[in-house]
Amino acid sequence: MTNQNEIQNITLVDENGDETLYEILFTFHSDEYSKDYILLVPEGVEDDEEVDIQAYIFNPDENGEATEEDLIQIEDDKEWDMVEEVLNTFLDDDNNFE
Q1: Model pTM greater than 0.85?
Q2: Which domain of life is it from (predicted)?
Q3: Tens digits of per-residue pLDDT, 70-85?
């Protein structure tokens, strides 16, 4: 998982060419799917603000970093369920928000 003290950002470009800056919420590896995942929130959101969290499969380089080109859409429903379960566990742990 990413270091909570060091916020990292990534810029995503939508189909209209608009750029949006996201903060990396956390990353994790799934042994079940043998893949790494990254979860993103729009940059500058307040802790109590409701937002859409973006989740992707990602292929980090040897330094653990990735660019937008390294992000892959999650298309399998069972894989989505697993990612949502990890996210809910993360959100339920108050220690992640200190």
Answers
A1: no
A2: Bacteria
A3: 889 999 999 999 999 9
